[in-house]
Structure formats: C-alpha cells, structure tokens
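Query form — protein Sigma-70 family RNA polymerase sigma factor

QUESTION: What is the three-dimensional structure of this chain?
INPUT:
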Amino acid sequence: MNKSVDYIGKTVYYLKNYNQFKISIKNLTEDIEVLQQTMQLEAVAPIAKYGDDITAGGNSELTAVEAYTAKKAQYKAKIIELQNRLEIINRIIKKVDRSIDGLEDEEKRIVISFYLDNKTWREIAQRNYISEQWAKKCRNKAVRRLSRMLFGLTAIHEQLDLFI
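ANSWER: The structure tokens for Sigma-70 family RNA polymerase sigma factor are given below.
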C-alpha cells in the first residue's frame, strides 16, 4: 500500500470526523470539570481523632484518609488522561482549521460544504454554479493540498512519488 494513501486517508478521516471532534472537545472539557469538582467536594477527608497512636482507635480514620488519598490520585490520573486526549483533539482541529484556511476559496467552500455541512454533490454544485463532476475534482485536489498542509514534507515527498 502506498504511504501517500495513508496521508490522504487520514486527511479525509479528519474532515469526516471534524464535527464529532468538536463535540468530543466539549464533552471532555465537561468531564474534566466534573472530576475536578468531585475532587473538591470530597476534599474534606476525615482526620484521625486520636493522634498518631493507632492503638487508641485512630486506625479506621487513618484508613479513611489513606482511601481518600488513593481516590484523589485516581481522579488526578483520570484528569491527566482526559487532558491529554483533549490536547490531541484540539491540535487536530487547529491543524484542520489552518489548513482549510490555506485553500483557495472554491476549494474551501466545497470542502466545508461536503465534509462539515454534509451537503450532497447536487447541492454543492447548484450552490457554487458548477457541475457535480467539477465539484468532485475540486474536492480531490483540495484533499491532496490539505494532506500536504496537515502532514508537511513527508506527505509532499510521498505524493511526488506518485508522479515519478
């Protein structure tokens, strides 16, 4: 399998899932906020009433403090995991947005209409006063250009190999 197909395939994947990525950003942000609020609400950990002397009855309270500390560590780990996912998706969205901005106006309209607005080829052709066939050719050209913008020199070299 040719590697350039992977870059173009990845580009198409990003475009097709753009709207879902946006929703994921909102959901992950909300999940992080809920975990942070939950951690704050549970921050009032029980304190041992009997000092350091475990034989004086402080054992159960100490266990509760340890349990809270373990739970807090789990919350923090989950928050970090969600933040990492959020960062990856945000980075993809920013790259796609910048790349779409780098397209010519006609390409930009066609890509946005087809991938982000889920318009049919007929609707796109009518709205832009072009044929469906031309809209598809323009989309193919735009996806190759987007691929080069998203993945840089690696994608450019791989795509050049197609023409040699």
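ADDITIONAL NOTE: The radius of gyration is 26 Å.
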